[in-house]
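re: ur question from earlier - yeah i can do the single chain one, its not a big deal. heres the input i used so u can compare w yours
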Amino acid sequence: MLKNALKDQYGRQEIEIIKSAGVNAFYGHSSIIRRYSGYSINKPLPCIIQHGTIGFSQDFYEVREWHKKEIVSCYWAWNYKAKDEAIKSNSPLEILELGAPFLYFLKLVKQFKKWSRLTTADHSKLRIDDISLRLKSIIGNKDAQKKSPNLVFAPHSLPNRAITLTEHIDFAEFLKSHEGLTCSVVCLHPYDVYLGNHTAYKDSGFEIVCCMDNAIDSFPWKEDDFWKEYQKVGIEYMLNLYSILKFAKHCYFVGLSTPLFYAGFLMKRCQLITFEGEAIESRMQSIKSIANKRPVSYNDMAIFRSLNELLHKKSWTKDNRLEFKAYCGEVLGASNLISKKSMKVLLNNRYQEIKDRETTAN
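and the output i got, formated as tokens:
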């Protein structure tokens, strides 16, 4: 464990589950669900949680491969669209619409704010003692609220689709020449930090941030060390992301991504970066391939037709922010959230189903 990294016991998973349903550990999802519901840290989550607004195929690979070993009993979809995708992919599991873990995290934050005003409150019941000081610091940080920087989410590499350092350097140069982006904070995914892509922005004078504790400070990483620490990521990842978004004035994205919908739900001004000019496109092929060409397909946006225009507007009204928050709520499954008690009962019952199957098989 790194010196300053948070040790998150609520993110704990049995090793077989880390290997099988690793999607649950992404971005602190398992930790958030345990804290919210009070589900035991000594039992694996009996479901695979949708890990983001894109990349469903990875989730379904986990479902198909590990359902054969009877480790999971259901797929946790955020909304009806994800549920439909799971059905089309012939998921062998029952599919439940339960909303995004991020929204349950916001419930914890809201209750923490409320209880912090009460001198007799017992915060241990919220199961966030280990992050309470961080959370209190974020809530009370007036200086950061005054800064309100522009925030750019850099393109996100994957092990099977790495974006080169050269392309990131070109993208950093593009940001420097783009009106309104020259003084931005650039947020990078931990895997891009591991690859060293953050240096493109640091060398260009941008402030850089990452949601994984000490990811930047511990660079360069040895491969094994990085993946060991990445597997341990817990609620601090979401807490860091929440902090970054909370203090941002204007959020820029290369294309549709999960943080865009988080930002929109928090009433932040969001905009898609428009790439123009053959020279730019030819130098950043990997980045351009994941960016959204204008206009964005209505089928991709799914809810309302004005979204494409909204994400390219130079300025927003309060009504625009409310309109976009409503859309983000649809994407994140805000209407599907359940109570703490209901979630604990659901998870315990599903886990018992797995144990009963094991008993019957033996």
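The radius of gyration is 21 Å. not sure if urs matches, ping me
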